[in-house]
Structures are given as C-alpha cells and as structure tokens.
C-alpha cells in the first residue's frame, strides 16, 4: 500500500483552497437520481452549520431536569436540538420523518418500524438496496407522499397520515413552522457529528419508552470504534493513507462527518478542511492530489469500474495512483448508506481501517464483524448472500 507524502498533501491542500476560492474546476453535470437525494446538500450543510452554532449554547446550558425524559404520569417530554420542548401524551403510535437515515436508526432502537407511518422517498430508495429490506420488509409500506427529497413538506398530505409526531431537520425553519401552525408536533434534529447522532438515539429511545436502549447502543458504538483506535495506536501520521472522497462526478467531500471516520481509521484527505459536501474539482486537481485510495460515495451511481476502466467521458483516471494500484472502493450500504452518521458508523470505521492498514487490522475479518454487529444490534442473522450485497468486492 502506497502512503502519501504529508508535505505533498499539504501543498496540494493549499492549491485546493486557492482553487475553491477562485471558483475554478469543471462544472459537474446534473447528478444522478441517487446523488440528487443526498442526506444534506452543500447548501443545506451550510444552513445546518449555521443553525448548529445558533443552538450550541442552548444545548450546553440545558439543565438535567430539562432533558428528554419519561414522566411519572406516563407522559413524555422531549427536548429537541433547537432546545424546544415537546410534550407527548405517551409513546407515539404514529411517527413520520423527513430525515433520510432515520428509519434504520429508529429500527436499531425499537426493533421494528411498526410506529413509522411515513418517511422520505429517498429513504425507500436506499431501503430497496439495503439489508433493512430483509430485516423489516414492512417498511416498504411507509407513506412518502407528504415530503420530497429536499425535505419540503406537503402539510395537506401529512395531515391525512394523522401523525402523533414528525421529525424534521433543525435548519428547516419554514417547514417546522407550517407543520406546527397546522397543530402537528415536530421534533427537530441536527445533522453533522457523532454527538448529534447520540442525541438522536437518546431522543428516539426516550420517546419510544426505552431509555436504556440508548445507553446500550452508544456504549456498543464507542466500544467498536475503540477497537480500531487500539489496533491502530502505533500508526504514525507518516503512514496515513492519502484518500480521495468522491461524492459524485468531479465532486469531492469536504469538511463534515467524513472527518470523524478518517480520523479514527488513520487517513487524510486533501479536501477535508474545505467547506462543503459536494465541491467541484477538475482532473488537474485530482492529478495534483494523486490519492493512494479513492472512496466513492453511496449517493452517486458512479462505480469503481467507471474509474478503473476509464469509462467516464472527458475524464482520464488512468494516471492516478489509486486507479493504477486498483485501490478504488464503493462505500457500502448496510441498513442504510455508510456515508452519513448512523448506527453502522463503527462498521464504516472498521471497513476503512482494514483497507488502509491491512497489517495492523489483519486479525479482523470484516465478514465476521458485520455478522456480529447485525446479531448484536439488530438481533438478525445475515446470510452469506446478504453479506455479499453489503460488502461487495471489499470482503477483506
């Protein structure tokens, strides 16, 4: 495995900042249907970051008595990520969500999706390619008519579903207001970090009357990531792989949740300090970065073979180190896509670490890790065929 030169990467990063500031780089074509339904678009990410800053102090100053809780009379108090308090009469029977990763996180917490009556249409697109369809086929019946892939809600259609509560992103102010004006209870969630994910799990667990489940999942999450931290403890920065995160055609991933799994799997990305999740670049910039490994996101239809066999018109990938060495991988989809924060993030960290540091991770079998995770978290036994679907060509 080739390791990138840190000095070369630092120089490349400076060039990338200049290019981004100048607005150069090839304009990317219209994204595929899958790419067009990313959990948070570039513009949405900026709005989410702004909202996160606005609500950070509220969250930090929250007293224990004001946190989400189950009350003695059976009512449930939820404090969402806007710092807003939502009172529920009890465990809701009818839950709807506009948030794409939500259904599989909900499933991990509750053990079923019986209460989930509606979700984002992109969630179902992912579901059809995911292992969740085997674990919970009933989710296919969830209504998707009330929301589009940009999280805009049709209130008239939503009212027909008679939801007890709806989940929406915290930066969608207008959408939250119009639902609340219609008398619908809304819980706002914030996108972006492992800490935010833990808050989602705690809110869902409390709301569904299973507060102890949050502690179980979060403890297991940290234990699993900690196993990688321990295995890679002796890896110095000079041995970090130089990786490119390709989110779509000539678009790369910048600063965001990807930095979490890069940090724990001991890799560096030359675009990781740049703001945005879909940054336009050109082939000249790719050549300058010359990554050792390329990871292709699961929100785009682009496959490793498109790069390895130079199938993309107008792009010549043949001179890139990762392509020459065959180190091009598609990010998996398990219960959901592994790109954004989710309950399967520990598997993403292990998968990356195994690719980037095969010697340090040689004692770990990725098939066994995925099987064990599904048995522990979902109480579900994966077949070999299901494992093949999740891991594809990267069963390392």
TrEMBL record:
Q: What InterPro entries does the database record attribute to this sequence?
A: ABC_Transporter_SBP (IPR050902), ABC_transptr_periplasmic_BD (IPR002491)
Fe/B12 periplasmic-binding domain: residues covered? 94-360
By what name is this protein known?
Answer: Iron complex transport system substrate-binding protein
Bias (Low complexity):
28-43
Could you tell me the Gene Ontology terms of the biological process aspect for this record? Answer: cellular response to iron ion
* UniProt keyword annotation of Signal present: yes
PANTHER family per the UniProt record, alphabetical: MOLYBDATE-BINDING PROTEIN MOLA (PTHR30535:SF34), VITAMIN B12-BINDING PROTEIN (PTHR30535)
**Assigned keywords, A-Z:** Signal
* Gene3D superfamilies in the cross-refs: 1.20.58.2180, Nitrogenase molybdenum iron protein domain
Signal peptide annotation = 1-27
Q: Where is the composition biased (Basic and acidic residues)?
A: 44-72
Q: Where is this region: Disordered?
A: 28-74
In its keyword annotation, does this UniProt entry include Signal? yes
Q: Which family does it belong to?
A: Belongs to the bacterial solute-binding protein 8 family.
